[in-house]
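Sanity check

After download, print the first record. It should look like this:
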Amino acid sequence: MTREVIAKRTDKTIYRDGDSLIKLFDESYNTADVLNEALNTARIEETGLAIPKIRKVTKEDGCWEIVTDFIEGKTLAQLMQENPDKEDEYLELFVDTQLEIHSKRAPLLTKIQDKMQRKISQSGLDATIRYELHTRLESMPKHRKVCHGDFNPSNVIIANDGRAYVIDWSHATQGNASADAARTYLLFKLNKQDELAEKYLKLFSKKSDTAIQYIQKWLPIVAASQMVKNKPEEKEFLQKWVNVVDYE
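Expected C-alpha cells:
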C-alpha cells in the first residue's frame, strides 16, 4: 500500500500506510526529541489509556520515523466544526478524557515543575519577571498526575466505534493537573476560540472540583513556557499574560 500524506508540519510529515501511522521527522530533527517522544508514548501505553500503540521506531535515509497504530475516525476539532450544535456535548467528552489522563500515574515521566523551570529560564523574559515566575512555580503544590502538555481537540480522535483516543504525547509530563488545564485554556485562546476557552475553564473547574482562580495562577507560567517556541505572531499576546501578576 502506498503512503498517503495526512498532515505536513514544518519539521515532520504524517503518513498513513494501511493500518499504520508513520510520523517522519526531518533530518534536522533532534534525535533525543524523537526518542523522548517514543519513550513518553511507551510510558503512557503502560497506564492503560486509549492511545495508538507504538509499532516501531526506525531510521530511513537519515530521517527518524515513529510508527504507531492508525486510528480510523475524526478528531474532536473536526467534529466540533462539523456539528456546532453538539459543541457542549463534545466539550464534555473532551474534559472527561482529560480527567481520565489526570487519574493515571507514570512515575518515570519528566516532572512538570522541572520542565517549566527550564522553559522559564529559556523564555528570554527579563530577570525580574523570570524571578517572579520561578518563585510562583516553586510555591505551587507538587502532584504526580499524568499531564498531556498539548491537550486540545485536534489531539483527540473519536474512533468509528465511539472510543476516544489521545495522540501526540511528545510533551507529556507528571505533575499538577491544573497546569495542564491552564495550558489547554491558553491553547484555545491562542486559537482565537475565546468563548470555548471560557466554557472549557468553567467545565474543567466544575468536573475536577478545582477553583478557577487556582488554575489561573498557572497561566503566567504556561504562557512563559509557550514563549520558548518563538512564534512572532504569539509574542505580544503571551507577553500580556506573563506580565499579569494576579488575575481578578
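If your output differs, re-run the checksum step. Summary of this record's structure: The chain has a mean pLDDT of 95.
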